[in-house]
Design brief:
The complex is a heterodimer of chains A (about 120) and B (about 100). By secondary structure, chain A is an all-alpha fold. Helix content of chain A is about 70%, strand content about 0%. Chain A has one domain. The model of chain A has no long low-confidence stretch (mean pLDDT about 90). The chains are: A mainly alpha (about 120), B alpha+beta (about 100). Chains A and B meet through α4 and α5 of A and α1 and α2 of B.
Chain lengths: ~120, ~100
């Protein structure tokens, strides 16, 4: 499959921790949600395509095979359901936003720990 | 727990409760991590439910029923929440028996 949307993602992805990968996925999911709510079809199409591509890179990462890959694929399915299932629960967008914001927060916390030379969370 | 939450997702932390055994696992990056921990410890899949805990909240608001692992149509649960009220009540019982709250 030809990947054109994120030229650098395939190279950088293997160096990222899971929360960093999902934080980046969430950025695109959030953009897709906002564009969808605003009726911006062009922005929505592009953001969703990027989100799904990053989901697929994450799911293909051999480090996450097994139970982690299962949740990643469930999350991908839930994002698709949000936009294409007419029976999606009304609070699904809010819940998914919170789900992905958690990873963005965790990725920033990881970044700060690395900057301060502390690799693990404080006890 | 608030400190743990701050270091992980900000003001909340993930947990998975075994409603049969009355135990829970917390602080996985994914609910699937906590789920795997409990399965390895002998829990049964159908007894496990993912929740988020907000240590700085009180009352009902401190437990949120929202997890990818809860999507189990074969068990009658078709959302990321916990659709069965009795199961939600049992989850609350287990959490409250394990965590000291104000």
């Amino acid at each position: 499959m030809t990947r054109l949307l994120h030229r650098g993602a395939a190279e950088s992805w293997p160096r990222m921790e899971l929360v960093e990968q999902l934080g980046n996925v969430g950025t695109e999911v959030e953009r897709a949600i906002r564009a969808h709510q605003a009726g911006r079809t062009d922005r929505f199409d592009n953001a969703l395509a990027r989100a799904l591509e990053l989901f697929d890179l994450t799911a293909a990462d051999p480090r996450w095979q097994g139970h982690r890959c299962q949740e990643i694929l469930r999350a991908r399915e839930e994002v698709c359901r949000l936009f294409f299932d007419p029976n999606v629960p009304s609070d699904s967008a809010r819940g998914l936003s919170r789900y992905f914001f958690g990873f963005a927060w965790a990725a920033r916390a990881l970044h700060h720990r690395r900057q301060s030379g502390r690799s693990e969370p404080a006890p | 727990m608030a400190r743990l939450a701050e270091d992980q997702f900000g003001d909340w932390i993930k947990a998975v409760v075994d409603v049969s055994r009355g135990i829970m696992a917390i602080a996985g990056d994914l609910h699937a991590d906590d789920e795997a921990t409990l399965l390895a410890d002998g829990s049964r899949q159908q007894d496990l439910w993912g929740i988020n805990l907000y240590p700085l909240e009180s009352g009902e608001d401190w437990i949120e029923f929202d997890s990818m692992i809860n999507l189990r149509p074969s068990q009658g649960n078709r959302s990321r929440g916990v659709d069965d009220e009795r199961t939600r009540g049992r989850i609350r019982e287990v959490v409250e028996s394990l965590v000291l709250t104000d």
